[in-house]
Design a protein that fits this description.
- This protein is of the alpha/beta class and 500 residues long.
- The protein is 47% helix and 8% strand.
- It has 19 helices and 8 strands.
- Strands 1-2-3-6-7-8 form a 6-stranded parallel beta sheet, sandwiched between helices.
């Protein structure tokens, strides 16, 4: 069973996209199962916050468009000492957007379904799938929020674990008990990921378009140069957005908010880094089309597939999560006291603190901190611990394999280390960039996952798997690889690109 995270990303669509690549890793010895958790995609009944996918996508876009404070301080990434009047105005717009969506769900949505949407219920649904298949124990690979789901299942049903890989690990204790701490902790390695991108662009200037602009190539010992140029571009776009006369989404303009959002989303998946630097280079030269499309592509409604058993529901699409659904699931999971920033100035201060931590900090805070303020429901059931052995967390029937990237923009390595220690599981350090091991292909990591699923072999203490750091600016060299390794590595590349 697979879960791609979110929460709010379709497990059905994910399985349909990645099954053949995952099958290469496990040598075709497993059936691959995806499902849509409650409120997600084809799961029925839905939460009912929006009457159509198009309306939901527009709501997501409306919340994010021009609501971050960048445009209120001339596009400067680093917040200043004082809050400008324009920043206050934009913060108020951001809060109003989240408030309107939350109150719309309360007024028009299915309250009982929303109260039944915690991760604890999703774990019980997994148990029902196992029972329906006649399988006593779970075999599972969870990514990002999927690690919260996996850890919750393991905590609730520890004797039902056969194999479990948690990849791109979230600290489930913070997720459920201390949301105000979870949000900044999750940004621990974001800045490092930005710097890794800059370093690789400099190391591979002949294939990195941003290093080939009129500004000159980037020296590897001057990684700040790229970050400075992005900051300069942000300031330009805040004061003078680039007109786009025609694009996939019609005419419009990218501004500083669109730039920051597009950068943050591309950090997740190194397979998209070539596209990102092309987008930045073009914008520097006055062409904002790629940047405009990158931001607006985040809000595409998913498309129905007429050949499916349920043709009226979404099956395939952009892979982006439904933000209202995500907010509801997170609201059901987290302790109500975790939404401590109810005063406007406290909320703004917390967002600005994250802005100082990383150029993506205010994006993350806007997506994660602000919606918690408007949680208005308590779930029928939520699992919020124990998360420690001394508090009653039980041993699982088979050890869990945790995977943490050296530089992951939203799930730092320290979370994988912490969760592995709590559960007494085995930790594999994936010495790469991006979100989860899927983001940056590694034969070593794939073989470790294969050995775990097929033979129950756990990585040894201190196990580290390397990657080709220059990918995707330099392609992998297949010519000297054994045939089976070459096939597996191509499958890993394709798996990474499914998210782009």
């Amino acid at each position: 069973m697979l879960n791609p995270g979110g929460p709010g990303i379709s497990g059905n669509a994910f399985a349909g996209k990645v099954a053949r690549h995952v099958a290469q890793i496990v040598q075709g010895k497993y059936d691959i199962i995806g499902w849509d958790p409650r409120g997600v995609n084809m799961s029925y009944p839905g939460f009912g916050c929006a009457v159509s996918d198009e309306q939901a996508a527009f709501s997501d876009y409306n919340v994010m468009q021009s609501t971050l404070p960048l445009n209120g301080r001339n596009g400067t990434f680093q917040p200043g000492e004082t809050i400008t009047d324009a920043e206050y105005m934009l913060y108020n717009r951001l809060a109003a957007g989240h408030q309107a969506r939350s109150e719309g769900c309360m007024q028009y949505g299915d309250i009982e379904m929303m109260r039944s949407a915690s991760t604890a219920f999703a774990a019980r649904d997994m148990l029902s799938i196992l029972d329906a298949l006649g399988e006593h124990k779970l075999k599972y690979w969870g990514i990002s929020y999927g690690t919260v789901l996996g850890a919750t299942f393991a905590a609730m049903f520890p004797d039902r674990i056969d194999r479990m890989v948690l990849d791109g690990v979230v600290d489930s204790k913070l997720w459920t008990k201390d949301w105000a701490k979870f949000v900044p902790v999750s940004m621990t390695d974001t800045q490092g990921t930005y710097e890794a991108l800059s370093l690789q662009c400099g190391d591979n200037a002949e294939t990195c378009s941003l290093a080939q602009t009129s500004h000159g190539s980037i020296a590897t010992d001057q990684k700040e140069k790229l970050l400075d140029r992005v900051a300069e571009l942000s300031a330009r776009l805040a004061s003078a957005p680039l007109p786009v006369t025609r694009s996939k989404f019609g005419s419009g303009y990218p501004d500083a908010t669109g730039l920051q959002m597009a950068l943050f989303l591309h950090l997740y998946w190194p397979a998209s880094w070539q596209d990102m630097v092309d987008m930045l280079a073009a914008a520097e030269n006055g062409n904002g089309t790629l940047l405009f499309e990158a931001f607006h592509g985040s809000f595409r409604p998913q498309q129905a597939t007429s050949s499916h058993l349920f043709p009226d529901k979404r099956v395939q699409g952009s892979g982006m999560l439904d933000m209202a659904t995500s907010d509801i699931i997170q609201c059901m999971d987290s302790d109500p006291l975790a939404a401590k920033y109810r005063d406007r100035d406290e909320q703004i201060s917390a967002i600005r603190d994250l802005g100082r931590k990383s150029p993506a900090g205010e994006i993350w805070a806007s997506l994660q901190l602000v919606p918690r303020v408007y949680c208005a429901l308590e779930p029928f059931e939520a699992y919020r611990g124990p998360w420690e052995k001394q508090d009653g967390l039980r041993d699982t029937s088979f050890p869990i394999m945790f995977i943490g990237n050296t530089l992951d923009p939203v799930t730092p390595l320290q979370d994988a280390q912490t969760m592995a220690k709590r559960f007494g599981g085995s930790l594999l350090i994936h010495d790469g960039y991006g979100h989860s091991s899927i983001g940056h292909p590694s034969l070593c990591t794939a073989k470790a996952i294969r050995a775990y699923f097929l033979d129950g072999q756990l990585p040894g203490k201190g196990a580290v798997c390397d990657v080709q750091k220059s990918w995707p600016f330099q392609e992998h060299d297949f010519k000297d690889l054994p045939v089976d390794d070459a096939i597996l590595l191509r499958a890993l590349e394709d798996l990474s690109r499914t998210f782009v």
